[in-house]
Amino acid sequence: MPDANKHTAKALTDDLTFQALRQLQANPRLSQRQLARALGISLGKTNYCLRALIARGLVKAENFRTSKNKLAYAYLLTPKGVDAKARITARFLKRKRAEYDALKAELEQLTAEAEAEGLLDSYPSPQDPG
């Protein structure tokens, strides 16, 4: 039977890993429900994500008491998690810059085509203040 933790850890995308690590680094005491809301995913997927991050050694969970009757966790990035976040951030920025450049080129081409057809005479360009 395959190791469920290995399967879970491999199933996370770079984007989800990046966003989760970013959220947890900013606020380690987020509840799973709050993290789910911040990531825009279900509570079940958030639990799955946290388990995978813990299995990969990127995050550790530490207990703390929020009240007399309720136990909660702080999700802390490990040194390995901080390093992974830095590497994923670099990949994320590279990918987003490439997407931006491609979109910018496409917009410039479409704008030129629309201007050539006289379609943009009444529309201000995105650069125009008015």
Q: What is the assembly state of the chains in this entry?
A: single chain
- Backbone shape: elongated
Q: Give a count of the beta strands, DSSP E runs of length 2 or more.
A: 2
Number of helices: 5
Summarize the helix and strand pattern as letters. HHHHEEH
Distance between the termini: 64 Å
Strand order of the largest sheet: 1-2
Task: Describe the sheet with the most strands.
Answer: 2 strands, antiparallel
Supply Rg: 21 Å
Rounded mean pLDDT score: 84
In what range is the share of β-strand residues? 5-15%
Global structural class: mainly alpha
Low-pLDDT stretches: 1-11
Helical content (DSSP H or I, runs of 4+)? 55-70%
What can you tell me about this protein's structure?
The protein is built from five helices and two strands; from the N terminus they run H-H-H-H-E-E-H. It is mostly helical. Strands 1-2 form a two-stranded antiparallel sheet. The model is unreliable at 1-11 (pLDDT under 50). The termini are far apart. The chain has helices at 4-11, 14-26, 32-39, 43-55, 79-116, and strands at 59-65, 71-77. The chain is 62% helix and 11% strand.
